[in-house]
Amino acid sequence: MSTLVLLTMTGLGLGALYFLIASGLSLIFGLADVLNFAHGLFLGVGAYATWWAGRHLPFPLAVAVGVLVGVVFAVAVELVLIRPLYARPIQQVLVTVGLSAAGVALLQAAWGADPRPFAKPGWAAATTRVLGAVVPNDRFVLIGAAIAVFAGLLLFLRRTRYGLIVRAGVEDRAMVTALGIDVRKAFTLVFAIGGAAAAAAGALAGMYFGSITPGLGGSLLIFAFIVVVIGGMGSVTGCALAAVLVGLVQQFANYYAAAGVGEASVVLLLAVVLLVRPGGLTGRTA
């Protein structure tokens, strides 16, 4: 029983991390039709900014600094690199792939390729007993952060003017533009939201794994893309469901089969969903 509880909590924690990355990625693609391969770099920038700030500030303030840096970086990328290329998808892919590679190289040049130990606050390094299982508290932090982001995104998308514009733009961007609404501001806002969520994921990934590397964002981005496809493009709810499913499948398969089987099981899950429901689990926005 204790093993089952521990695997479930670890899978939910990993799924929460995937959701934080995939939610912004899904909105960016759903609204702006940008397949942003540099999204993992947003995570890496947030992780290193939090790590640097954590040497001078308490952990919550360090995370706030990391998120702020992630937002500024994401907005700058949208304004300078992506906005001139909205009508040219191939160039978008080339630019975001190149930016990701260059960004990882810059992080490596600045702080080296070796893992940087990521100090956890005392309360996150402690454990809590749940139904006989000793569960690290960082799992609860990840789950709590994902729930907060999920609730915040739903409120934004359903209760605010710009949220309604984003939802409408995901469904039919041409119609929103025809109504005289400037969707470019919504594009920038969505990039800011995606940058904030990815940067927060970078900070929490450092806490979860105990260290950060320049390539951390790239490795997690693969699973984020899988979550986006399984959940449905542009659907935050679908992202949440898919992230939970992917995290649990990966953890249970790795434990009960062998190391590496979890990753293969996730790819198999992706193939099954694409065959049965090509539009994803929900196939709708929000």
UniProtKB/TrEMBL annotation:
<feature type="transmembrane region" description="Helical">
    <location>
        <begin position="59"/>
        <end position="81"/>
    </location>
</feature>
<keyword id="KW-1133">Transmembrane helix</keyword>
<keyword id="KW-0813">Transport</keyword>
<feature type="transmembrane region" description="Helical">
    <location>
        <begin position="34"/>
        <end position="53"/>
    </location>
</feature>
<feature type="transmembrane region" description="Helical">
    <location>
        <begin position="186"/>
        <end position="209"/>
    </location>
</feature>
<feature type="transmembrane region" description="Helical">
    <location>
        <begin position="140"/>
        <end position="157"/>
    </location>
</feature>
<keyword id="KW-0812">Transmembrane</keyword>
<feature type="transmembrane region" description="Helical">
    <location>
        <begin position="255"/>
        <end position="276"/>
    </location>
</feature>
<keyword id="KW-0029">Amino-acid transport</keyword>
<dbReference type="InterPro" id="IPR052157">
    <property type="entry name" value="BCAA_transport_permease"/>
</dbReference>
<dbReference type="Pfam" id="PF02653">
    <property type="entry name" value="BPD_transp_2"/>
</dbReference>
<comment type="similarity">
    <text>Belongs to the binding-protein-dependent transport system permease family. LivHM subfamily.</text>
</comment>
<protein>
    <submittedName>
        <fullName>Branched-chain amino acid ABC transporter permease</fullName>
    </submittedName>
</protein>
<feature type="transmembrane region" description="Helical">
    <location>
        <begin position="6"/>
        <end position="27"/>
    </location>
</feature>
<feature type="transmembrane region" description="Helical">
    <location>
        <begin position="93"/>
        <end position="113"/>
    </location>
</feature>
<feature type="transmembrane region" description="Helical">
    <location>
        <begin position="221"/>
        <end position="248"/>
    </location>
</feature>
<keyword id="KW-0472">Membrane</keyword>
<dbReference type="InterPro" id="IPR001851">
    <property type="entry name" value="ABC_transp_permease"/>
</dbReference>
<keyword id="KW-1003">Cell membrane</keyword>
